[in-house]
Amino acid sequence: MSSAEWESLCDGCGRCCMVKLEEEDTGACYLTRLACSLLDIGSCRCSDYPNRKARMSDCVTIDPASVRKLEWLPETCAYRLVEEGRDLYWWHPLISGSPETVHAAGVSVREWARSEKGVKLSAMQRYIIGPADHGAARRQQPARKAARRRA
Ligand code: SF4
Ligand code: SF4
């Protein structure tokens, strides 16, 4: 798969650009509704994609080798679906032909994300909305490490 083809697999949901909090003791990972400050919430795209690694040191690269290890990737993520041998959903732009269907289907973060700008790390726990992986982890001790994403 070429680099352009790989990039086109991203459905533009923005879910992997949400701040995750990792519990120091257990490694449990929680999803917040805080978006990376570089995410353009309206389009659900990175506002400085070419320079993201320089500007956000914890932005995680998603490549074929890492998909399987990134347990916090949402189940709807096209990279996860392909890795698991599953079909893309109808709303994926490559299927629907429109970048808007991921929003119309309610899959993107457009309607519920808020920027992490101005939110202190110590206050981020308030924005936890659930476990970020497939486990049944529950909220426990103070979480602190932010994890980001992406390709
Ligand atoms: S979760 Fe997957 S499909 Fe959605 S924006 Fe991130 S990389 Fe793209
Ligand atoms: S997590 Fe990475 S790709 Fe997503 S908005 Fe932030 S810097 Fe850009």
Describe this structure in words.
The chain has 151 residues and is an alpha+beta fold. It has one domain. Helices cover 16% and strands 19% of the residues. It contains five helices and seven strands. It has helices at 3-8, 52-55, 78-83, 93-96, 101-104; strands spanning 18-23, 29-35, 39-40, 45-46, 114-115, 128-131, 143-147. The strands form two sheets. Strands 1, 2, 5, 6 and 7 form a five-stranded mixed beta sheet that branches. The two termini are 14 Å apart. Mean pLDDT is 85; it is low at 134-151. The structure holds iron/sulfur cluster (2 copies). One iron/sulfur cluster is lined by residues 10-16, 62, 73-74, 77-79, 149-151.
Please name the defining characteristics of this protein.
single chain, 151 residues, alpha+beta, five-stranded mixed β-sheet, two-stranded antiparallel ribbon, 5 helices, 7 strands, binds iron/sulfur cluster
Q: Give the SSE order as H and E letters.
A: HEEEEHHHHEEE
**Count of spatially separate domains:** 1
* Average pLDDT: 85
Task: Give me the secondary-structure category.
Answer: alpha+beta
Largest sheet: 5 strands, mixed
Spatial separation of the terminal alpha carbons: 14 Å
Rounded Rg:
15 Å
| Helicity level | 10-25%
Number of strands: 7
Strand content: 15-25%
Number of helical elements: 5
List the helices and strands and how they pair.
Layout: H1 3-8, E1 18-23, E2 29-35, E3 39-40, E4 45-46, H2 52-55, H3 78-83, H4 93-96, H5 101-104, E5 114-115, E6 128-131, E7 143-147
Parallel strand pairs: 2-5
Antiparallel strand pairs: 1-2, 1-7, 2-6, 3-4
The protein binds iron/sulfur cluster (2 copies).
